[in-house]
């Protein structure tokens, strides 16, 4: 029987061997930590501390700036040094709180719950909101918003996105192996919100040990199951994940809830557990430092706000001069030009590559071969869309459904002419969406 | 260190296949039938292949020099055009006509429209049709196969069928021991090349499959011969149909990029080939069928825009 998956997709070099067998080790930061106020989709958080204040680890330092927003917490104890714009991995300058660690890591007191099942839906959502939990797979959508659909009873599938299809990343893999219980308990908390839902762990079959471990952990749980998926990029894309697991399709104008689904990433679910059960806010995460240039590729549990440079140093620095450094994986990560940027709720890896394939690739004109069409998980015609983008033809772009693009980059990856297809499509998509917002 | 870093938009990796590698695969796939053409028709065939390729390559180089564009010979597409054109020429054609064909294919059909990826018509077939119109006598006189056992010197199997005089040996046609253009005679070797391309992921069966099925159905309906096995095999193996279906109609640039469009395009090729062969004055019709279908590509694409993932459902949900 062929495994469940989606149409299209590509098979980039996985590179996970570098770090997959390295257990999670804790890294305590030194010196300055930077907390950008926008680590999520929605309104930026508002600082509630002043320069000179002393803070404890786990203390809220910024309040959510609206319903679609999320609070931010100090991950170390120390003193607020500054509140000023700072560069973030995506290249933007974002208002940030800078805290100097006192090296003590003194934690504030939390309010754990003994019996989570006794909590009401509102109480659970509130604890998630107050815990600053956002989608940690990269999008950063506030989780309390995601878990508050209009009709919770119509949700019949809660999917744990355990695909980790992005090359080189192994943090979710390590969590599945090392924090299996936490993941399953987190899932049960979400299921408590949706009484009619089944919980499904969608795992790519390149992680058989995770599938085994999860299956062992959910024995005797009638509402939980594991769904092995074919290993293919972008299996972890939300729409692709929903389709593979349930056969339901959603488009850019729909939410997973419209298909009766809620999808959460591995680490989001463990953060939900921390926030709801332990009352411990979202301030630490698992991070992979890897790539062929890194001396000792590792998986760290670290305090958010730590700089990329510090994480790289902790992994032994670079053994060879890197040509490219990426925040995230090779398919959707952001190229960095500076390591003096902070880690946030949505950053999951630092990848240092000795060779940059992109700048070395020699391209030709598009030969219309159609490989991008075969690769596109959204069944689009990327080569056409890119041409429309280059010529500024926004109407044609929309006629050919360009706004459905999920920006996975499969088209650019597969293109034999090495056209920057995804880049061109992203450009025009951004322009059109910006113009629509103005209206 | 940071001033050494490269920065670009994601993704940061690229698949290994390149344009020139794809073109190289096509050249490799055409090698068996090319070699057989030389064996079958002698050294003049080899000369024609050489001068046609040389003419195509030289034309592209000169054109790019004149218009001050970067040299594009590295993509190997000019070599593919030259080889395909040569395989579509009668083996006894005067060499200078072949050179002229090469110049026409590259300069007029390809480069004037913007070079690789921009031409709306298959350059090799465009040039062939140019040569047929300009030098009708030379382009339709075929020398006999070296292996021919009978005395039908210069008559292609399709011409024999068309005139209704004589028997065609379909086994000879399968192997290629017949008269015809340099590269069209051996169905077997063409199919071996085609299978190679399919295995390498260069082409798929949408266009050739739709083409061949449509053509067979058309013959069954309108040839008046019913299910005549010998006739059908002769029609399929003759007149460059296989070469056209697998190597010319599948030309990326001049065929639709939409999956549904590719099937419609194949059907168009099959229908036109059937019409030309059954009702036309000429015994053959593959070249014209494909280049006319090439002209329909923009319209076909316009009406076959694929439904994006999940869009259908949205409409159902609304209604």
Overall description:
The complex is a heterodimer of chains A (439) and B (319). By secondary structure, chain A is of the alpha/beta class. Among the domains of chain A are: 116-278, NADH-ubiquinone oxidoreductase 51kDa subunit (Rossmann fold), CATH 3.40.50; 371-438, no CATH class. Helix content of chain A is 28%, strand content 20%. Chain A contains 14 helices and 17 strands. In chain A, the strands form four sheets. Chain A has a six-stranded mixed beta sheet with strand order 1-14-13-17-15-16, sandwiched between helices. In chain A, strands 2-8-7-4 form a four-stranded antiparallel beta sheet, with no helix packed on it. The longest helix of chain A is centred in the C-terminal third of the chain and has 18 residues, at 421-438. Chain A is globular and about 60 Å long. By secondary structure, chain B is an all-alpha fold. Chain B has a single domain, classed as Ammonium transporter fold, CATH 1.10.3430. Chain B has 15 helices and no strands. Chain B has helices at 19-41, 43-66, 77-87, 95-110, 123-134, 136-139, 157-163, 170-175, 187-199, 206-222, 229-237, 241-248, 259-279, 286-302, 311-318. Chain B is globular. Chains A and B meet through strand 15, strand 16, helix 9, helix 13 and helix 14 of A and helix 1 and helix 15 of B.
């Amino acid at each position: 029987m062929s495994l469940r998956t989606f149409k299209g997709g590509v098979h980039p070099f996985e590179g996970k061997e570098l770090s997959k067998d390295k257990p999670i080790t804790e890294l305590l930061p030194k010196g300055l930590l930077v907390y950008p106020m926008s680590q999520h989709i929605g309104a930026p958080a508002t600082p509630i501390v002043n320069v000179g204040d002393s803070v404890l680890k786990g203390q809220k330092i910024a309040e959510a700036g609206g319903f679609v927003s999320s609070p931010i917490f100090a991950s170390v104890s120390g003193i607020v040094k500054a509140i000023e714009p700072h560069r973030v991995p995506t290249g933007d300058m974002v208002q940030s709180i800078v805290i100097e660690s006192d090296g003590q890591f003194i934690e504030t007191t939390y309010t754990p719950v003994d019996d989570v099942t006794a909590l009401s839906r509102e109480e659970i959502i509130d604890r998630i909101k107050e815990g600053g939990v956002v989608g940690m797979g990269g999008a950063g959508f506030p989780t309390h918003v995601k878990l508050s659909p209009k009709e919770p009873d119509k949700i019949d599938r809660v999917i744990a996105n355990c695909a980790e299809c992005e090359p080189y990343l192994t943090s979710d893999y390590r969590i599945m192996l090392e924090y299996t219980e936490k993941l399953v308990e987190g899932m049960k908390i979400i299921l408590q919100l949706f009484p009619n839902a089944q919980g499904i762990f969608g795992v790519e079959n390149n992680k058989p040990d995770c599938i085994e471990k999860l299956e062992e952990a959910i024995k005797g749980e009638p509402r939980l199951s594991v769904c092995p998926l074919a290993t293919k990029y972008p299996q972890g894309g939300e729409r692709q994940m929903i389709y593979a697991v349930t056969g339901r399709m959603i488009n850019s104008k729909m939410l997973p809830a419209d298909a009766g689904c809620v999808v959460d990433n591995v680490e989001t679910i463990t953060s939900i557990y921390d926030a709801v059960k332990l009352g411990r806010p979202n301030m630490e995460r698992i991070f992979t430092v890897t790539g062929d240039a890194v001396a000792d590729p590792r998986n760290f549990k670290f305090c958010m706000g730590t700089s990329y440079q510090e994480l790289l140093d902790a992994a032994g620095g670079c053994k060879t001069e890197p040509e490219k450094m990426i925040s995230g994986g090779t398919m959707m990560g952001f190229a960095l030009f500076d390591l003096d940027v902070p880690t946030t709720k949505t950053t999951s890896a630092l990848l240092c590559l000795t060779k940059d394939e992109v700048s070395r690739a020699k391209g030709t004109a598009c030969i219309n071969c159609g490989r991008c069409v075969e690769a596109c998980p959204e069944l689009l015609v990327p080569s056409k869309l890119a041409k429309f983008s280059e010529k500024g033809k926004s109407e044609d772009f929309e006629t050919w459904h360009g706004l459905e693009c999920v920006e996975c980059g499969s088209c650019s990856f597969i293109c034999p002419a090495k056209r920057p297809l995804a880049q061109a499509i992203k450009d025009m998509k951004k322009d059109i969406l910006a113009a629509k917002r103005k209206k | 260190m940071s001033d050494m870093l490269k920065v670009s938009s994601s993704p940061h990796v690229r698949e290994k296949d390149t344009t020139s590698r794809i073109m190289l695969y096509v050249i490799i796939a055409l090698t068996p039938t090319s070699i057989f053409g030389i064996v079958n028709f002698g050294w003049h065939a080899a000369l024609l292949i050489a001068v046609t390729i040389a003419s195509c390559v030289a034309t592209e180089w000169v054109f790019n020099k004149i218009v001050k564009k970067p040299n594009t010979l590295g993509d190997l597409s000019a070599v593919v055009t030259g080889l395909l054109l040569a395989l579509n020429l009668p083996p006894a054609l005067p060499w200078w006509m072949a050179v002229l064909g090469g110049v026409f294919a590259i300069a007029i059909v390809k480069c004037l429209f913007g070079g690789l990826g921009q031409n709306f018509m298959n350059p090799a077939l465009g040039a062939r049709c140019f040569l047929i119109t300009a030098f009708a006598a030379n382009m339709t006189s075929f020398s006999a196969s070296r292996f021919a056992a009978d005395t039908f010197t210069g008559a292609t199997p399709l011409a024999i069928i068309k005139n209704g005089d004589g028997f065609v040996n379909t086994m000879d046609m399968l192997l290629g021991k017949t008269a015809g253009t340099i590269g069209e005679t051996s169905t077997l070797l063409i199919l071996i090349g085609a299978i190679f391309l399919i295995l390498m992921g260069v082409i798929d069966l949408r266009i050739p499959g739709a083409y061949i099925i449509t053509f067979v159905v058309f013959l069954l309906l309108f040839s008046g011969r019913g299910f005549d096995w010998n006739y059908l095999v002769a029609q399929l193996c003759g007149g460059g149909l296989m070469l056209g279906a697998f190597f010319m109609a599948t030309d990326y640039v001049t065929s639709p990029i939409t999956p549904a469009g590719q099937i419609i395009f194949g059907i168009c090729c099959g229908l036109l080939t059937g019409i030309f062969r059954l009702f036309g004055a000429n015994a053959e019709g593959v070249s014209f069928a494909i280049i006319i279908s090439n002209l329909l590509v923009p319209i076909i694409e316009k009406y076959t825009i694929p439904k994006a993932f999940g869009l259908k459902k949205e409409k159902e949900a609304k209604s």
